[in-house]
Each structure stands twice: as structure tokens, then as C-alpha cells.
Amino acid sequence: MSRFATFAALHVRGTPVILFNAWDAGSAKVVAKAGATAIATGSWSVAAANGHDDGEALPIAVLLETARRIVASVDLPVSIDFEGGYAVSPGDLAANVARLKGTGAIGCNFEDQVVGGEGLHGIEAQGTRIAAMRNAVGTDFFINARTDIFLQAAPDAHDAAKVAEAVARGRAYAGVGASGFFVPGLVDLDLLGQVCREVPLPVNAMAFPGAPSADAFARAGVARISHGPGPYRIAMAALEDAARTAYAA
After folding, report:
1. pTM for the full predicted model
2. What local confidence, expressed as pLDDT, does residue 1 receive?
């Protein structure tokens, strides 16, 4: 089985694949050693590790080199957080994702927020962008289509209307070739369960302090759990504590 097929097969509703996100080759090797079945990056962490802010401030050349190094360092499928694809036009997106696939990555996250702007790309526009990416990378590359609906609204505003909008986007993205649907920020298990039932794609939730447990996410029907910037923050906090201890000695 190819790495592409192996990664896709890990996405099982109710038995989610856990992605403890890495940010470079060294962290990927540690996560692999701990028992990971796949490696995924988080854009915030990769950017921070290279001295940049999130939001495509990290040069794409650095991101692609990071992807190559991670792929070379582990014998596992590697998915890369590609933010908004470093482009707006479908043609430029297609070229960029083809370069990403050329690093050996088997998939990517691709978000619908307007990077560097406000709001989200319209459903039709984002669908056209996903379709262009799919045409560029073939049928095997795992495009995890992320919607920022819930990140751009306070948790107490996560309601039936927001879920209806998310479901509409998830169905549209599935129709143009997305492989998965990522709803970071949504932690209401009833609402999340509705998304899992109504979107014909494996659904990805994000773990963070205060979020539901992996078991609770699984019972809601989630097929993938990402940890986002959490692992990087844990590592940097431990590093700072150790450094302070050393300097205080």
C-alpha cells in the first residue's frame, strides 16, 4: 500500500487518527518514536520555529524545504499545513501544491480564510481553488479542506446557523475533490456530531487545553484529531524552564 493510501485509510469515523503536530525533522522523529502512525505539521509551529509569524509570513521556499527534511527523516506519511496555499488564483495554487507534492508529502491542510485579509473565501471561489489543486496533484493526495468558520467566531456563537454554513461548505468541498474536512475551534460535541453526520468526508477536530477528550471526539464521529500549535508550545515551555534553571544555578 502506498503512503497516500496508508494515510487515507487511517481516517476512520469514530476511531480517529491522532496527529501530534511536528514542526521540523527533529520533532517529527520524536513524534514518530512515540508511536505516531503519521506526521503532520501545524503552520503556526513551523513559522514560529523559523522566527516568523503565522499567516504565510514564512517564505514558501522555507516551508517546502522543511517538508522535504521531515519526509526524509521519518518512514511515515507526512501531511503539511499549507495554510491558504500561498496564492489566491487557482492557477498559482495548482503550481504551489504541485511543488508541495514534489517534496514527498502525501497531503496538506488548505484553509478557506482570506490569509492577510478578512473573512472567508466564498464557497464557489474556494471550491474552484480546491478543484484546481486536485487537478494538479491527482486523486491520491489528501487535501484536508479546513473551514475557519468556528475560529472566527466566539464559542458562544457556535450555533445551528454556523453548523449549517459549515455543512454547506463541507459538502461543496467534497464535491470538488477534498479528501477531509477540518473544523478547528468547534468543540460542542452535539454540533460537531451533526457535522460528522452530514458532511460526506472524514472530519478533523482540533485538540487543545479545555477541548473534549479524544474519546469524546471519537464518539461524536470524528476521524482525525490534530493538536495544532500545542506540541510546540509544550516543548518551548519546557525549554524555557530548563534554561531558567540553568541560568539560576
Report:
1. 0.97
2. 85
